[in-house]
Input
Amino acid sequence: MVPGCTSHTSKGRNFRRPKFTRKPTQDSAMANEYLKAIASRRTIYALAKESTISVSRIQEILTETIKHSPSSYNNQAQRIVLLLGTDHEKLWEIADETAKKNLPEEVYGYLGPKLAGFRASYGTILFFDDAATMKPYKEKHPGMPFDQWNTHSQGMLQIHTWDALELEGLGANVQHFDFLPGFAQVVKDNWKLSEDWNLHAQMVFGKPTGGPGPKSFDDIDGKRLLIFGDKR
Ligand SMILES: Cc1cc2nc3c(=O)[nH]c(=O)nc-3n(C[C@H](O)[C@H](O)[C@H](O)COP(=O)(O)O)c2cc1C
Output
């Protein structure tokens, strides 16, 4: 049980009264706060081995984001593993060993210090999906692009998580070292995770020791955003 969560179990039944419930009424002020949160999130690489919040609060954030992020047919195949302390460090040691073994020397020369930076951060969130959960959906609806939709669900879950961590004063960046041959398998073996799990991303986080890099924005109106129809 996460401290602060207003739920309890009685006689084996869960009488959960969630702290975070749907807000069906219009609330433009809250919408603006949400848009501000979206605008606040950035990729941060300079991260300390410290957190601005407790582990139980991180657990609460992950519980809420995985619960409320949508998935096709509500399949809920997304999985999260939170690595802290020496487990977090172990992940980046695995990445370092795999990179050194598989990449040309000049590429490893560039990546090595980046990997050391990730190891020096506070924690990593691993994002997976579970192929076993998807199997009946794929059998029942052949031809439906579930793998593509799963990547959409991953993005939705990851951005919710990233935004929430950022609002708690943490910095984060998202990595994809699953491109390294054998990396995902060693990760699954090391933490005894299901063979059916597919690794999508590694979100490194910690207390920021520096800000984000510069970011430019392409034109939006008429280029990235088109509107057709009556604007009444
Ligand atoms: C789908 C996706 C994949 C990304 N992959 C990586 C990655 O593997 N490594 C990395 O350092 N950043 C990665 N990024 C971060 C982007 O480079 C970054 O989000 C983009 O430059 C915009 O900067 P911002 O996050 O500060 O807004 C990824 C972002 C997205 C959305």
User: Anything to note?
Assistant: The beta strands are 7-10, 13-16, 47-48, 78-84, 123-130, 171-175, 197-208. The helical segments are 28-40, 55-68, 85-102, 105-119, 131-140, 146-167, 183-190.
